[in-house]
Amino acid sequence: MTFLNEDRLFPVETSVRDIARALYSDVHDLPIISPHGHTDPRWFAENKPFADPAQLLVTPDHYLFRMLHSQGIPLEALGVPRVDGGPIEQDPRKIWRLFADNYYLFRGTPSRIWVDHALQDVFGVTERLSPKTADEVYDRISECLTQNAYRPRALFEKFNIEAISTTESAIDDLRWHDMIRASGWGGKVVTAYRPDAVIDPEFDGFADNVETLGALTGEDTTTWAGYLAAHRNRRAFFKRYGATSSDHGHPTARTEDLPADVAATLFDKALSGTCSADEADVFRGHMLTEMARMSLDDGLVLQIHPGSFRNHSDVIMGRFGRDKGYDIPTRTDYVHALKPLLDAVGQEPDLTIIVFTLDETSIPRELAPLAGVYPALKLGPPWWFHDSAEGMRRFRETATETAGFYNTVGFNDDTRAFCSIPARHDVARRIDCGFLATLIATGRLDADEAPEIAHDLAYGLAKQAYKF
Amino acid sequence: MTFLNEDRLFPVETSVRDIARALYSDVHDLPIISPHGHTDPRWFAENKPFADPAQLLVTPDHYLFRMLHSQGIPLEALGVPRVDGGPIEQDPRKIWRLFADNYYLFRGTPSRIWVDHALQDVFGVTERLSPKTADEVYDRISECLTQNAYRPRALFEKFNIEAISTTESAIDDLRWHDMIRASGWGGKVVTAYRPDAVIDPEFDGFADNVETLGALTGEDTTTWAGYLAAHRNRRAFFKRYGATSSDHGHPTARTEDLPADVAATLFDKALSGTCSADEADVFRGHMLTEMARMSLDDGLVLQIHPGSFRNHSDVIMGRFGRDKGYDIPTRTDYVHALKPLLDAVGQEPDLTIIVFTLDETSIPRELAPLAGVYPALKLGPPWWFHDSAEGMRRFRETATETAGFYNTVGFNDDTRAFCSIPARHDVARRIDCGFLATLIATGRLDADEAPEIAHDLAYGLAKQAYKF
Amino acid sequence: MTFLNEDRLFPVETSVRDIARALYSDVHDLPIISPHGHTDPRWFAENKPFADPAQLLVTPDHYLFRMLHSQGIPLEALGVPRVDGGPIEQDPRKIWRLFADNYYLFRGTPSRIWVDHALQDVFGVTERLSPKTADEVYDRISECLTQNAYRPRALFEKFNIEAISTTESAIDDLRWHDMIRASGWGGKVVTAYRPDAVIDPEFDGFADNVETLGALTGEDTTTWAGYLAAHRNRRAFFKRYGATSSDHGHPTARTEDLPADVAATLFDKALSGTCSADEADVFRGHMLTEMARMSLDDGLVLQIHPGSFRNHSDVIMGRFGRDKGYDIPTRTDYVHALKPLLDAVGQEPDLTIIVFTLDETSIPRELAPLAGVYPALKLGPPWWFHDSAEGMRRFRETATETAGFYNTVGFNDDTRAFCSIPARHDVARRIDCGFLATLIATGRLDADEAPEIAHDLAYGLAKQAYKF
Predict the structure, then answer these.
(1) CA C23 to centroid of chain Cα atoms
(2) In chain C, what residues touch A407 (CB-CB under 8 Å)?
């Protein structure tokens, strides 16, 4: 028994809906390629049961707690840990009830679709979450979590995940990835190289992190040459754990291509903590070009995720720390910002640079035109605040006419909310099939061409772009 | 007899249209809450008949005269007064005929919908305005205006207005509001505190205005402490005339939170007329935070309306003065601009800050993410150039997925065109019901949830947010 | 026999589609007014057969080769000439096969519609281009090109072009236009005055170009007064070859209105090559106002096409030169940028300034509000990356409510791809009829009004705005 509409997110006009439904029926159960995300590798390493419904679904999901918080609910009441260790709600059932009481706040949001989908398809819930059904749903999930079928590896298989990438800091020891590999389990969980902590002079503990990088690699990271060698070494280490990409979350899309001596001098200033804010931005920007050059040798895909003003509220940052739903997109320039990088490596046919944006205005104006001409550049899927039905629709409507389908790279879920992964990919598949159906119905695409595109968008492009 | 399509602005697909129509039928005759507008309280105080069709509908409506003017019609020909008192058209019938002759210019614009609606529903006109029908329509309206049923208070009641807010300068004496209250008439007409004249160092006569504020409040407004006390005093005075909000029309969304001594020094510079343009912006920005702090005590809702380049044409400003349709939206940053204010008071659950935008790109990128997390912040409805069918649709499509419905505050008409008020609220109700119908038809919302939301968007949210 | 859907690009809902089809049937075969484009007047002067399918359709079309190049195909393989004269593909059939093999890349793009339309309607091809049909289609086109019916003038007539404007540099001798006129052929091919080479201090050979302008006009262009006189003289010369407009492709929309002595001094710096980048921008901006003042006398329409970052890749610029698909739109401000020009001449009812944008965000925020009030300002159609189905739809949805239909100027194709001209105008007519049909179906327009608007958008407005 289901409570979700089986034709959800398809175009409403009957003849177009029929086309969309037919396309979707061919791709809806394709394996999931999840080339960029933030699930915890420890889950798959230890394969312990998830703790409780609140810990699994509410407390770690910033989409959920930010909305509840926006209506005046203290983060403490949702069990979000305080920096000072102060008292927070410990009773998962109370947290769950608070969530259910306020579930109406998510009307019209993607979180609603993701949670509904997970409740129905993962846990077999047959009614919408509400104050009335809160306890019943809680009990149902709790009961499930005691079963082996709901342990991380079993869910991974149930979700039909062919490959998933987590993201680890360059100075992470990858112990959980090691444990996964040692376990003999066949699930493909790979890492990605995220060096912000050793590339961003403004990152907490930058100099210490660089020293740690030296210790881990046996390179002398007090010198520019040693620092670059350490990156090369560490990228190779990450590749041993399946990494096919690096990932860079800079405040802006700025890139630079400095002469070696200028870069070396800037690196010294960064290590000594004397970079100005602008110099720090220059250094980060230059390192993107260095990373791209390393990619020419080792084949890692370069992902650039710019444009978020992180931890916007000083109050919340002070009380709860980083990543508490207070990251806000900002206006982002790409045309001038990416030029140094693209002049350096943009013509390389074997290099893949994937750029994401939180500023949708840049898609038709800047990113589709850039990805539609530079051989090395591809356009990442709608990201974060825009990985929603409307965001995905706007993405296709504003990207396709200039960049086509084949300068995009399929979908990625970018999530730490494990149970939402099937839902998120399902939304993308439905929206893409609806978009293709509209192209057919309006004579912009022939019916015989669409199944191949639907397959590529749901599966093939991600696999190819990320070399899975 | 009607000439307007009864299903106007609903989605076109039959099954979705049916859902929209059903939702609309439940909310279309709800009372109007008009919490932000610019009607003249003198109308309701004196309750005199409106002068003539041109004076009522054309001459004061900048939406109408800007379009006519854009096609080369001199403002003089529309009866818009000149600064130098030079000759302008005095014959209302001639103005009306000119309007009717050029009514085709409004095809596809919201003005067309508003005027059609007013002609049909307020004045019982049964044919579209055109050169042919111009005189007939003019005579019909003229005849109506002689009847008591078309006096301001009668129209207020006919329009089913439960409460309306006008906007008055902080140094207004509120005499018309006083007269309304003294009259014993039951219509709820309240004021709002608009202190631009005493907050903006670049406002004409700023120092004199601040002196007047001192005189009106008995405070010494030559000192920073006295100036703040005068605001507190004046806000209390406005509250006695029903004010539940303050309103701030700054060029940018900049806010500041200065130390008291820095603010005091800046205030001295402002009074002496020696602020640089940037210092003036800093002062305005700081005063938003001061206003918010006063709101913590007196409960007024803080409205920020930034982003308009006022009186863009020097020629028109010189010949006709301010507010002649030459206010043009500009690109507006909110993420950096609002941070000082939000760090100061953004976590206050009992404070309501409503932010409006004329830069639609800021909605999905900045304002929905901000309103979707800060407890104090709400997102105002589509405003001014965007209070149209397409603008409202884009607003819901770009705001809802991140901010939901409950971080928005319903609709406000923001108008001085009295007869357009029912039309404007009707457009909002139709578009919102159409949006909800689309969510239902695409499986994003259950049918049983939508009536409550439709009611909230049409009535409940405005009433609650503005404390009416 | 056709392979294109006859109802392509119309709304999908049956009743709306029926309205759109009826409107379209009245305008689809109206003559083409092409007031802004880049066809080569030499074609019409010499009237020689076009060389081969690749030379006609692929190699000169940057929309096509940029997409192929983005997927790693070297420009050399497409026959694009190298600056160093190095080897490139010479066999047109090989180029054509490469195009056909990769034709799937254009799925969902306007290029696909344009090429399909040209193949079907111009060359009578009955099947979609594909690796399988590549040779057959090539042979078909080749055969056509040997016939007189496929020479430039015959195609001009077949395409039902009533008037077309090419664009020539201010220092072009207009020999091909002269030859067309001398030939006695009746086709209306006019020029447009494009003075970038003698207005932009950063243009290659600026000082030499200005000297040439002096030689051509007999004016002393070493002085500011002589330089302006030379422009006036040259504009008159262009008018003798039918020019009704000037066209200006500046990096930004900046305008200035400098005192004469300041302008004269800046001109001297420009001639001596000592302008800073900012001074060059000021000079370009001031010249727009000078051009507008000349328009007051000679009646030329002023077209401003700002916002493209030209030749973004240094690598491609070095290897293949200018205009190789590497022009990327940038964020563009109009509100502040156009103010000096609009203060100077914006109230002139007999002046027409047409502004284009590559930054769609500026339409609802800046350009529709500006064009909706300034008598001299009109809004150009969706341009370049946005002259597509979705771009045109977004244009109407974001421009109409504020600027109406009558502050826009119909469609122009802006193309050098001759055979795509009917297709491009057809797309515009279909989208506009679909937009009007939607307005009717949603009660925003009466059915009796739409045919006139459809006719104006397809034909009348362009003819009127460009004085054809």
Answers:
(1) 26
(2) 70-71
Is B4 a member of any domain?
A: no
Chain C partners within 8 Å of B70 (Cβ): 371-375, 377, 403, 407
Inspect the interface and report whether the beta carbons of B347 and A316 lie closer than 8 Å: yes
Cβ pairs bridging A and C (under 8 Å):
128
Tokens encoding B83: 């600064």
Q: For the segment C232-288, what is each residue's pLDDT rounded down to a tens digit? A: 999 999 999 999 999 999 999 999 999 999 999 999 999 999 999 999 999 999 999
Question: Which of C100, C124, C150 is at the close of a domain?
Answer: C150
pLDDT band at B60 (very low <50, low <70, confident <90, very high): confident
**Taking CB atoms and an 8 Å limit, are B112 and C439 in contact across chains?**
no
A66 vs B347, B373, B405: nearest CB: B373
Could you tell me if the ipTM is greater than 0.95?
A: yes
Average pLDDT of span A293-320? 97
Q: Which of B331, B430, B438 to mutate to test the interface with C (most CBs of C within 10 A)?
A: B331
d(CA C197, CA C201): 8
> Cα A329 vs. chain centroid, distance in angstroms?
15
- pLDDT (tens digit per residue) in B290-299: 999 999 999 9
Residue of B nearest to A318 (CA): B343
Helix and strand element counts for chain C (H, E)? 22, 11
- Distance, CA of A395 to CA of A377 (rounded, Å): 17
d(CA B348, CA B367): 18
CATH of the domain at A134: 1.10.2020.10
Subunits touching A (CB < 8 Å, at least 3 pairs)? Answer: B, C
What tokens were used for A443?
């004579």
For residue B366, the chain A residues in CB contact (below 8 A) are 328-330
Same domain flag for A173 and A311: yes
β-strand pairing of A245-248 with A189-190: unpaired
Residues A382 and A279 in one domain: yes
- Residues in chain C with CB shorter than 8 Å from the CB of B312 are 335, 339, 342, 370
- Contact B329/C369, CB-based, under 8 Å? yes
Q: Across the interface, do A361 and C358 touch by the CB < 8 Å criterion?
A: no
Cα of B299 to nearest chain C Cα, Å: 33
C316 is written with which tokens? Answer: 């491609």
Share of chain C above pLDDT 90, in %: 99
Residue numbers in B near C409 (CB within 8 A): none
Whether A8 is in a domain gets the answer: no
Residue A437's contacts (CB-CB under 8 Å, 6 or more residues apart) are: A10, A11, A16, A17, A19, A20, A23, A450
Cα gap B377→B354, rounded to integer Å: 6
DSSP assignment of C103-150 equals: GGGGTTSHHHHHHHHIIIIIT---S---TTTHHHHHHHHHHHHTSGGG
CA distance B301 to chain A (A): 16
| C434/C380 same-domain check | yes
Cα–Cα distance for residue pair C136/B428, rounded to 1 Å: 56
Are B70 and C444 inside 8 Å of each other by CB? no
Instruction: Report the alpha-carbon distance of residue A326 to residue A62 in Å, rounded.
Output: 9
The structure tokens listed for B58 are 């054309």
Domain that holds residue A339: 14-46+154-465
Q: Cα dist. A378→A354, A356, A397, C55, C234 in Å?
A: 5, 9, 17, 29, 46
Determine, yes or no, domain membership for A114.
yes
